[in-house]
Write a sequence for this structure.
């Protein structure tokens, strides 16, 4: 049955819930081009203003997941698990947690995104590895999942196409910021990608889309309930994103930092969040029964070198040069480099994640517009972090940029992001909260 999109927008604006049939029609008609962008944008804005019930969010997610191909990973002979982060600055957790989970016996078959606004994307980071392909067909994706047990590919156009189209429109019309739309967007892709278990890393703070713990908890609960309704085993971890995760922000530089963690070094915060997420992935996959066992399994695997081997096997299977992992910056070098220096002695009381994200973006590590090229060598490397004491004139951050203007803009962003004073930063928990799988652990 056909509907009038204008009536649906008016009703939504008044806060009336829509039926399964109406939501199904809306998703199908917009994906097929029967509804134009302008009326769809009005409906999205009505959702942003009036919200959706949990039932409507589920119906929207289900319709979006079914708008394209639904992958079936059930025949792979290993427990399948996916993870998703709601986005952050310096967030290279997938590059560490996914190889750990794969080396512990899970099959991690993951579709990842590109950078969005000030946040980085796993696909852009992986593409900094020379030769590595992320545009895999569904057949290749499934074959690599079976053979290697680890595959990370870009979102294919055939998977949840309704989200691809709606996301681009939300981005262009300022309608990203709705809990129901974010939950439906993320979970429709996760459900269509076929893993039986899903772990959500919901970031909180200045560098995240959710600024407060309450907002993040509400989003996490909504995504978990939608995923469970789709028959998946879902858990969520809320992690702090007020300061960048680790010291590296960019593409090649983040892969290098992730490899350092996989080899037993690297920053403690990246190691801690990655081990926590990897352990929950193992619990969700049903490999050990408890979180404590999973955590110890993840730590042993990391120490054994098994996880870095899993990452190298994945890189080779996707056509990449795994030897590049031994080269500084994967063999890339920046056209321009510069340092941000302290202008007074004191304590670093703030390194604002969003501000550092803007600096990396200005340097060339991200896109200002859809389709822009990114520079794999661009980014920011923090030489000092929150809580460190610094002397007047000391280098606090190194910037790698694609052009002199990019370097100047990035340094100006860091002027706003980094605060030196005589006050210590507030202590913040890195792992804020957890929603375990339904049966505890
Ligand atoms: N990431 C997504 O995939 N979708 C959103 O709506 C927000 C973040």
């Amino acid at each position: 049955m056909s509907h009038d999109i204008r009536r649906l927008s008016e009703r939504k604006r008044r806060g009336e819930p829509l039926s399964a049939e109406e939501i199904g029609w809306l998703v199908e008609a917009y994906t097929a081009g029967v509804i134009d962008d302008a009326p769809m944008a009005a409906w999205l804005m009505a959702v942003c203003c009036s919200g959706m019930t949990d039932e409507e969010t589920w119906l929207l997610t289900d319709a979006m997941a079914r708008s394209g191909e639904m992958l079936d990973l059930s025949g792979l002979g290993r427990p399948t698990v996916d993870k998703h982060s709601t986005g952050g600055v310096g967030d290279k957790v997938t590059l560490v947690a996914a190889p750990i989970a794969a080396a512990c016996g899970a099959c991690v078959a993951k579709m990842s995104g590109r950078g969005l606004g000030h946040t980085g994307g796993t696909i852009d980071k992986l593409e900094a590895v020379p030769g590595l392909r992320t545009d895999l067909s569904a057949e290749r994706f499934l074959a690599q999942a079976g053979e290697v047990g680890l595959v990370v590919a870009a979102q294919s156009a055939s998977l949840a196409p309704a989200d691809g189209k709606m996301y681009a429109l939300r981005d262009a019309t300022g309608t990203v910021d709705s809990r129901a739309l974010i939950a439906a967007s993320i979970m429709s892709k996760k459900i269509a990608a076929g893993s039986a278990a899903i772990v959500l890393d919901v970031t909180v703070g200045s560098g995240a889309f959710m600024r407060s713990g309450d907002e993040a908890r509400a989003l996490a609960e909504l995504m978990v309930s939608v995923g469970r309704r789709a028959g998946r085993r879902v858990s969520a971890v809320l992690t702090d994103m007020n300061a960048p995760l680790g010291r590296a922000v960019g593409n090649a530089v983040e892969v290098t930092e992730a490899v350092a963690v996989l080899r037993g070094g690297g920053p403690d915060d990246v190691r801690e969040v990655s081990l926590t997420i990897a352990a929950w992935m193992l619990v969700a996959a049903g490999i050990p029964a408890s979180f404590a066992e999973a955590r110890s399994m993840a730590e042993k695997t990391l120490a054994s070198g098994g996880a870095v081997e899993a990452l190298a096997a994945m890189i080779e299977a996707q056509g990449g040069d795994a030897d590049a992992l031994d080269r500084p910056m994967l063999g890339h070098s920046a056209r321009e480099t510069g340092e941000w220096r302290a202008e007074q002695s004191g304590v670093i009381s703030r390194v604002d994640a969003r501000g550092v994200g803007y600096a990396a973006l200005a340097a060339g590590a991200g896109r200002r517009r859809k389709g822009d090229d990114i520079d794999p060598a661009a980014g920011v490397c923090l030489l000092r972090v929150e809580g460190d004491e610094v002397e007047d004139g000391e280098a606090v951050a190194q910037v790698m940029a694609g052009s002199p203007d990019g370097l100047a803009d990035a340094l100006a962003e860091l002027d706003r992001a980094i605060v030196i004073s005589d006050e210590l930063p507030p202590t913040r928990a890195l792992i804020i909260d957890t929603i375990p799988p339904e049966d505890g652990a």
Observations:
- The pocket of uracil is lined by residues 86-87, 113, 167, 176, 181-182, 185-186 (CB under 6 Å).
